[in-house]
Amino acid sequence: MAIRVFITGGTFDKTYDEISGQLRFEDTRIHEMLRLGRCRLDLAVRTLMMVDSLDMTDADRRLVLENCRSAAEERILVTHGTDTMTETARVLGEARLPKTVVLTGAMVPYAFGSSDGLFNLGSALSFVQALPHGVYVAMNGRCFPWDDVVKNRALGVFENRR
Amino acid sequence: MAIRVFITGGTFDKTYDEISGQLRFEDTRIHEMLRLGRCRLDLAVRTLMMVDSLDMTDADRRLVLENCRSAAEERILVTHGTDTMTETARVLGEARLPKTVVLTGAMVPYAFGSSDGLFNLGSALSFVQALPHGVYVAMNGRCFPWDDVVKNRALGVFENRR
Amino acid sequence: MAIRVFITGGTFDKTYDEISGQLRFEDTRIHEMLRLGRCRLDLAVRTLMMVDSLDMTDADRRLVLENCRSAAEERILVTHGTDTMTETARVLGEARLPKTVVLTGAMVPYAFGSSDGLFNLGSALSFVQALPHGVYVAMNGRCFPWDDVVKNRALGVFENRR
Amino acid sequence: MAIRVFITGGTFDKTYDEISGQLRFEDTRIHEMLRLGRCRLDLAVRTLMMVDSLDMTDADRRLVLENCRSAAEERILVTHGTDTMTETARVLGEARLPKTVVLTGAMVPYAFGSSDGLFNLGSALSFVQALPHGVYVAMNGRCFPWDDVVKNRALGVFENRR
To answer: Which of A95, B36, C79, D81 has the lowest CB atom count within 10 Å?
Structure first.
């Protein structure tokens, strides 16, 4: 089963730049995370962009959609900032692609010691293999359909809409 | 969705004892792993035993089976040493429980820096939510039915039988 | 030999706030670092402030000086941001205290995976025990007298003046 | 100031072999530790052997002594297992070399998450620069003259003789 992975950035991939003292993006860390997990899946990884999701534009989200649409694979993982992950999920969900698309990210950069990134990556890669066609957000060990998820910004967790 | 977690030990939970210079078991590390993953699932965790799976007896495996059978939950995760994980999977699979049971473990102790444990935990918790009733081994990002899995001891990875 | 430790903050003690996505200060991490190092020194730790050293004022530096002057101990470690560490070293050096004072910090927060903080802490605690009275900056494994040190901002390392 | 570093192994450099489930030696980890510490010292590193110090023979200790004697450098760091570190320190101390030699090690392998190795390395490299000629053991943030140190095996720490 071939799985496509699209990287868009987000906290998942931020690193600390010691010269400037700021957080920034370099190359994706996903390859070392997959090595750490000893992942033996057939994955095709592409970096579409490396942005904080607060900086994502409609054009960026359409780029993600078009890449999902044109990918040869039927199962797609998208790594994404958590702040607007549900918006991109909505854009993808409304397109009704005949695919299983799972979005995930991290609350703490993988580059830091206490990250949820590795756990979320394992979780999302499993959901993308097991779930029927549709678009989902995988965070906090759970998966949410694209039309029933919201980020609780006070707690920093994802929940069903209510 | 309530999920039961049964801990049996394995490399997943080994730690380094600096006084003796040996690897040994203390309390399970699963709670700190779930905190790290910011896991928001409804989990009931029980430690059945803390053994290297090479030391597991038939009685131990029957204990795991009986606990799976009598658990109130329909979805069960079992953490287990990788060396005889497929044997316990077989014992559970042949019992034809009306449940989804997923076994996982780690090639490197979570207590060490380069562990696959957190990735496998996220992976297995997702499979146990998504898969139909049956018994599965979740390792290396994949899931295997209990009757089609073997550990490749030379490479330290799990594969389909052939 | 009793050693006084004064905490002023700096990158050494920054942490990542996942709700805001920003770096910030919480309690000092020095106690867990000393536990990790299995440090058996007789240390009295006090947090004077938790600031980025770019935000330190003359009043702040005088506070550090007065605390060094009035401390009962003859040997004092000061953790400090690297950006203006040499300025505080100068204020302390010009006071000609009959003490050994060593300033150290980190280029990467201890809270992140790739920090020099633990190495620098071990280094500075050793220099403060072994050096004669005076004020020193301990970074990059070396120690520099307060009047012969400068931070090379392009490379993020400390060097002798030239 | 050039410093010679002789590696002999010990817990400091042990790693976990996931295929066998045993601890073993591979290459020394000291280079990545020095990178992590952003160490800017002029160091010449040589691996003399990679052994658990319980397996060190008199011939091994004489090898360490001869290398210390013939090294061009006046300041030498020796990484060593903690179990017989004081014995090697005695062999070196009785030779009355016109040099400063510091031995250090770790109670937990650097390869594991909770190691004192990086702290001890920073500590020992500082002591070797600052101390007068003689042979010392640097552990737990302290330094001990070779003729006044013993390992407290119950607690896993180093102390003065009494």
So the answer is: A95
